[in-house]
Design a protein that fits this description.
This protein is mostly helical and 439 residues long. It has 16 helices and no strands. The N terminus is likely disordered.
């Protein structure tokens, strides 16, 4: 029983709308389903016709597929390998500048294999060994004395070593088409290589010989420098102030004696030849004093050179070179000199700590070090004794002594030197150079 009073017109309208929407959805689904069925039936009909026309081909394809499957299960046919060649032109090429593998040759082609023709059937270890043995019988140096057989056998042995080692062969196959990776792995010595190692003993011998020649001629140059100066001073009769010395004066005196004897011998020879010395001299331009002096120098020079060459040692290390001046000999003496110097200075340091007075030897060594070995040897014994009493190892005393020597060389008298010393002690102004003149 339905309560009609409770019926609401608005709810009935909603129900009608809902029913309409549901009906529309079902109708749309029916249309879509019908179209789909039509397309499906049409496609099935076309495929059926195609299958009827290609029935024979389908059968053939099935047969071929089955045969291909059978062939896949069976091993591929072996490619006929050409006989290995001993000609290096048939060995192919490979990027191996560092000679990690077979150098510029192909390891496979050396043994008679070509990686481009074997397909899926690469040579096994047994095949490589067999090929190597055949080639070794032909090219082994003990069996083949032909020129180049040894080099070829070395390449063959190297190829066998690479291809029978699993890791090396894998690397070789990997780098075949990858030169960039080869460069990355082996590139540290591809573009350059170390030079062969030199024998260290040969290098040392060459160094010592060159050093000995240098020290020998350096010592000769030292002696020659003093000799040239001594010849010049003796020939030109230079005074001590001008650069002469007692040695140059002695040499000049000897040279004058020898020159006089030569002139006397020439006059005697003329008399012996019948000349009475009254012949008139040829008239000519009169010689100046400078020209006569230069002529005398020309006569004196060869005599002075001969006298100077007879002097082997000028002192202070300026002597003619001997075997003692070779670098090898000096190096042998270095340990001795070093030991002696170390012991002497150690003893000197101990005596200074004990505040012991300087002995004669210590005074002489300190003075020689202060004035220099050349000056010490050049002075006379009396001057050396005087220098020992001046305590020249003290800086102030050394400066005063050098100033005294400079004034002596300038030719100043004793009185003038005393005046200058007094002025300097009083702290006076610096003495101008014009006052330092010869009295």
């Amino acid at each position: 029983f339905v309560n009609m009073n409770a019926f609401n017109p608005r709810s009935s309208t909603r129900m009608v709308r809902c029913c309409r929407r549901i009906s529309f959805a079902f109708a749309l689904l029916a249309v879509v389903f019908a179209i789909s069925c039509t397309l499906a039936f049409a496609q099935e009909g076309s495929s059926g016709a195609g299958s009827d026309e290609d029935g024979g081909a389908s059968t053939t394809t099935t047969a071929s597929d089955s045969s291909a499957t059978n062939n896949a299960d069976s091993p591929p046919p072996k490619v006929k390998r050409p006989e290995p060649s001993g000609n290096e032109a048939d060995w192919g090429s490979f990027y191996d500048p560092n000679k990690v593998f077979c150098g510029k040759y192909d390891c496979y082609k050396i043994l008679g294999w070509d990686h481009e023709t074997w397909g899926n059937n690469p040579p096994s270890l047994k095949d490589i060994t067999k090929s190597y043995r055949n080639l070794s019988r032909k090219w082994h140096p003990d069996k083949n004395k032909a020129k180049g057989a040894r080099e070829k056998f070395v390449h063959i042995a190297k190829a066998y070593e690479i291809l029978t080692d699993k890791e090396k062969r894998a690397d070789y196959d990997h780098f075949r088409d990858r030169p960039d990776e080869y460069f990355i792995k082996y590139g540290s010595s591809v573009l350059w290589s170390y030079a062969p190692k030199s024998d260290a003993s040969i290098i040392i011998i060459i160094f010592l010989m060159a050093g000995s020649v240098f020290t020998y001629y350096a010592q000769k140059n030292k002696w020659q420098t003093i000799a040239n100066h001594l010849v010049k001073a003796a020939v030109e009769d230079l005074s001590p102030r001008e650069g002469g010395s007692t040695e140059s004066i002695e040499i000049r005196e000897k040279a004058l004696v020898i020159l006089a004897e030569k002139k006397k011998e020439e006059e005697e020879a003329k008399l012996a030849n019948g000349s009475n010395g009254t012949e008139k001299k040829k008239k000519g331009p009169k010689m100046t004093g400078r020209e006569r002096k230069e002529k005398e120098w020309e006569l004196m020079r060869p005599i002075c050179v001969q006298l100077v060459n007879e002097i082997d040692d000028f002192g202070a290390g300026f002597r003619k070179p001997t075997i003692q001046d070779l670098l090898v000999v000096k190096m042998l003496k270095w340990p001795y000199y070093l030991t002696v110097a170390t012991l002497w200075w150690s003893k000197y340091a101990v005596r200074r700590v004990r505040k012991v007075e300087l002995n004669e030897e210590e005074r002489e060594v300190l003075t020689k070090n202060a004035v220099g070995e050349v000056t010490w040897i050049a002075v006379s014994d009396e001057e050396r004794q005087k220098m020992l009493t001046l305590q020249l190892w003290v800086t102030d005393n050394l400066v005063e002594w050098r100033e005294e020597q400079e004034m002596k060389l300038a030719g100043l008298s004793a009185n003038r030197r005393k005046q200058i010393k007094k002025i300097r002690k009083r702290g006076g102004a610096e003495i101008p150079d014009e006052d330092l003149h010869m009295d």
